[in-house]
Write a structure and sequence with these properties.
The complex is a heterodimer of chains A (510) and B (378). In chain A, 72% of the residues lie in helices and 6% in strands. Chain A has helices at residues 6-47, 50-84, 86-120, 127-156, 175-179, 182-212, 217-252, 254-261, 300-306, 316-321, 331-353, 357-370, 389-419, 426-452, 465-468, 474-505, and strands at 161-164, 169-172, 267-268, 272-278, 291-297, 312-313, 457-459, 463-464. Chain B is built from 15 helices and 4 strands. Chain B has helices at 7-28, 30-41, 45-56, 59-76, 78-87, 89-109, 118-145, 172-196, 203-233, 251-258, 260-281, 288-308, 334-344, 347-361, 368-373, and strands spanning 149-151, 157-159, 235-239, 245-249. In chain B, strand 1 (149-151) and strand 2 form a beta hairpin. Classes of the chains: A mainly alpha (510), B mainly alpha (378).
Chain lengths: 510, 378
């Protein structure tokens, strides 16, 4: 296959990262706020009290502002698979396209059809139909997350497919194996519950501001109670599925696990560095210490990775250089076998063209022998299999530290609000003010870990980014990159200004 | 039953589904058409508000249909997704930018403290309705005029024109198709607004929209006639039984003539659009959109059918005929097409709830009083 200019890969990755990170500012809020709005409206319909309708409408206004920019930043992502990753689109479109289409049909139409009722239907449909519509928007948003996460989980842990050498692509073997892959399920729960968590933090932050300003006190307190309970429940799911993700990484993406733990040399009873400053001069294979400073919890990493305190957790060096004792093949060997697969595929194609059946069948059997390593054949150095270690380590630890803080925050808020003294707790409210911003940092860190930690692969172990990319000149990508950067930044500024103004105006209660 | 269908049958069924989604999108472009009318037919802020709020409950449906169209193409014809989007990079980016700026404009235009000002968001809506639709038309035009790409033995695409897809807009046919879509969308937009707005307090707006319907239809007809003329005389990309692609004179005419469905669909579609426009501008009807809309869907189906069926390459390459895409060489595998056909069984459900909601939301005509009493109004 043709060689591709490396800067094209970098710019394409930068563009995808830029658009995805912007998109992810808004999506988790949509996921959670849609459900919270539906809760508020349910209480209104159940109790018939107008004040709950006003609370629901207030949060809906903020939801709508956020939803619009979520759509704007989202449409590009679907098409970017084609525009910037065209080889990827061809090679795995047979699998990857399906969840994207299902997302459109089963989720986006629910969202967009009932969104109109949610905002403009108050006087046009019955109370119950309106409530149903709000729930449909919530269901639609979260279903869309399900399908796109099935797609992403498949990139992290490709299953249910086989390579078709005649068409030079991977093809689907079982739809259900893909849709119900364990990675997909835990990724879905982890991501949506973290969205619920972020929306709860958003409600807490806005309500804290009102309480500090001594405005809309009743509404703010009610919102805090519902958001804190919702946020606490969500935190439980986030922690459980986060633990499951680490366990799955140990099985399906062990190099990512080693990188996020900063573990170079594998060990039994491996400890986890919970707080650490990495040594930037540390190189793969040398004997330098990976950390300048570190606080380690003994046995913790073994426990996370294998749920056994004394188990062996392989490190980065084990994957690069191999570890016979633990039966780990070196990257050098995998690259060699990958190249054999690539050459066999080329000979097979050549023999087919010349109608040489015997040669074709021999080449095919060689190919089949090594095909699972084909992706490695496109890598140059054994160290290429390692994702950026520092980014993986820090993003993981930021996510986990913040994820631990949030349930505590919700508990504090719940305690003081139930006690009736939250208005006097100035410091707690000030902490509440920054809550959602910490939430956003945790959200982005989580995706940085998931995607950067998968490098050098687009599809883990099978297709490196340099083969997946579209053959473009980097000048075009730079142009679109900066256009996105400027446009999305302008839209973000507009969104923030509108949002702040609406919060300042506040609901029509009290 | 679906599980035992032949791959070729599945490929054809999927091309029909793609044609239906694409044609519905062309109907739903009444939103984009309406957006371009904003500065032309609305003479006061109130009239503008009526138009924006009328389109405001429908724009997401159009937007979602475009996303659906992309998703369905990805799942069923991934080679097209890869070749066209990756190859024609700039034209698709242009289209997408026009939809990005649309997505925030309804929500942000009237909100206080909106940073860019109402005029900017109105300009965004105009760009989406004009340049966006024009580029979509130009891109669809390449189904008939061909593009500049080659594929290697691994199906990796090389685009041979440095304009990366934008060159599509410089062909007279592609441009005509684009402009036809723009003016047809404006015709549909006028008819939709007539159907949805209560004109008791703004009778001049109604008259302006009726005139607008006729004028835009006449302009769109000129482009449509050119398009039909092109189909009659132009060379088309024929695929023989061995899969060899050649240029054949009068190919698209022969496609229309040998597929009665396409011919009937075209004629009935045209008649319906004419009737919709006639009843709107002469007979003062408010229901023109239904005839115009259905007519547009039928014309759209013809365009997609003659592009993909009857041994035709639907995404041809001008520079290397044998790299051209057909519905047979560009599709997903049997198992994916089958699985997705099961998913497609949900299409009637989706269409069902969309119609219910449409009916409920459009049961009463839109008034200024309603808009001013709802603080969520655009």
């Amino acid at each position: 296959m043709t060689g591709i200019d490396l800067s094209v890969v970098d710019w394409s990755r930068a563009q995808f990262a830029l658009t995805a990170m912007y998109h992810w500012i808004f999506v988790p809020l949509t996921l959670g706020l849609s459900v919270l709005c539906a809760f508020f409206e349910s209480i209104y319909v159940k109790t018939g009290k107008e004040e709950w309708k006003k609370i629901a409408k207030f949060w809906m206004t903020l939801f709508g502002i956020n939803f619009a920019i979520g759509l704007a930043t989202g449409i590009i992502l679907e098409f970017e698979f084609g525009t910037n990753w065209s080889n990827y689109s061809w090679m795995v479109g047979d699998l990857f396209g399906a969840p994207l289409a299902i997302e459109g049909l089963l989720a986006f139409f629910l969202e967009s059809t009932f969104f109109a009722v949610m905002f403009f239907g108050w006087n046009r449909v019955s109370k119950k139909f309106h409530l149903m519509s709000t729930w449909m928007v919530a269901l639609g948003s979260n279903l869309s997350a399900l399908w796109i996460l099935v797609a992403n989980a498949w990139m992290q842990h490709p299953v249910a497919m086989q390579f078709n050498p005649d068409r030079a692509r991977f093809e689907l073997k079982s739809f259900w194996d893909m849709a119900l892959s364990p990675v997909a399920i835990s990724k879905f729960v982890h991501t949506t519950s973290s969205g619920f968590l972020l929306a709860s933090l958003f409600v807490v932050t806005v309500s804290s501001w009102y309480l500090l300003k001594k405005r809309h006190i009743k509404m703010a307190k009610r919102s805090i109670i519902i958001a804190s309970v919702f946020g606490l429940l969500a935190s439980g799911f986030v922690v459980m599925t986060g633990d499951e993700s680490a366990f799955q990484d140990a099985r399906f993406q062990p190099v990512k696990l080693a990188a996020l733990a900063g573990l170079y040399k594998g060990e039994k009873k491996a400890g986890d560095v919970v707080l650490g400053v990495m040594n930037p001069s540390k190189k793969i294979g040398d004997n330098k210490n990976a950390f300048y400073l570190s606080i380690k919890v003994p046995w913790m990493l073994s426990l996370l990775a294998n749920r056994k305190l004394d188990s062996f957790v392989p490190g980065i060096d084990d994957f690069v250089y191999g570890n016979k004792q633990e039966n780990i093949m070196s990257a050098t060997d995998k690259i060699k076998m990958g190249k054999l697969a690539i050459n066999a595929l080329a000979s097979y194609k050549d023999a087919k063209e010349k109608n040489d059946k015997e040669k074709a069948s021999a080449a095919l059997s060689t190919f089949n022998k090594y095909e699972q390593y084909i992706g490695y054949g496109y890598l140059k150095n054994p160290t290429d299999i390692v994702p950026p270690v520092a980014i993986s380590f820090y993003s993981f630890h930021i996510m986990v530290a913040l994820g631990t803080l949030f349930p505590i925050l919700f508990l504090i808020f719940l305690f003081y609000t139930m006690k009736g003294s939250i208005v006097e707790q100035k410091y707690v409210l000030m902490l509440g003010l920054i809550g959602v911003f910490l939430g956003w940092i945790a959200q982005e860190a989580g995706w940085v870990l998931a995607e950067v930690g998968r490098q050098p692969w687009t599809i883990n172990g099978l297709l490196p980014v340099n083969v997946a990319v579209t053959n473009l000149s980097s000048g075009y990508i730079k142009t679109t990159f900066f256009t996105f950067l400027i446009l999305f930044t302008l839209l973000l500024i507009a969104e923030i200004k509108i949002m702040l103004k609406q919060i300042k105006i506040g609901p029509e209660v009290d | 039953m679906i599980g035992s269908l032949d791959t070729a049958v599945l490929q054809q069924m999927w091309w029909i589904l793609i044609s239906v989604i694409g044609s519905l999108f062309l109907f739903l472009n009444f939103v984009q058409g309406g957006q371009t009318l904003l500065w032309q037919v609305a003479k006061s802020e109130e009239e503008k508000t009526l138009i924006i709020n009328s389109l405001g409950t429908k724009w997401e449906l159009t937007f979602t249909t475009l996303v659906m169209f992309g998703g369905a193409l990805f799942a069923s014809f991934p080679k097209f997704y890869s070749v066209s989007f990756g190859g024609g990079y700039l034209v698709w980016m242009g289209i997408l930018f026009s939809f990005i700026i649309q997505a925030v404009s309804y929500e942000y235009r009237k909100k206080p403290n909106n940073f860019l000002g109402a005029k900017t968001y109105e300009l965004f809506l105009f760009i989406n309705g004009s340049i966006g639709i024009l580029l979509i038309g130009a891109a669809v035009g390449t189904f008939f005029t061909g593009s500049n790409f080659t594929l290697n033995e691994y199906n990796q695409v090389t685009w041979t024109n440095p304009l990366r897809g934008l060159e599509a807009a410089f062909s007279l046919f592609n441009l005509s198709l684009g402009l036809f879509l723009v003016f047809n969308a404006r015709t549909l937009g006028s008819m939709y607004l007539l159907n949805n707005i209560d004109f008791t307090k703004t009778p001049e707006l109604e008259q302006r929209l009726r005139k607008c319907t006729l004028r835009n239809f006449i302009v769109s007809l000129i482009f449509l006639l050119y398009i039909v003329g092109y189909f009659v005389f132009a060379n088309g990309f024929d695929v023989n039984s061995a899969g060899l692609v050649t240029l054949v004179k009068g190919k698209y005419l022969s496609n229309i003539l040998s597929m009665p469905v396409a011919l009937i669909s075209l004629l009935v579609g045209l008649l319906l659009v004419v009737w919709g426009v006639f009843s709107t501008s002469i007979k003062n009807s408010f229901k023109g959109i239904w005839f115009g809309g259905l007519g547009t869907v039928l014309i759209g189906l013809t365009v997609f059918f003659i592009a993909g069926f009857h041994n035709t390459a639907f995404y041809p390459s001008k520079v290397d005929l044998q790299s051209s895409l057909t519905i047979y060489n560009a599709s997903s595998s049997h198992i994916t097409l089958t699985a997705m056909l099961y998913v497609a069984l949900f299409i009637p459900v989706v269409l069902g709830y969309i119609s219910i909601v449409w009916k409920k939301m459009n049961a009463k005509k839109l008034t200024l009083e309603e808009i001013s009493s709802n603080d969520e109004s655009y």
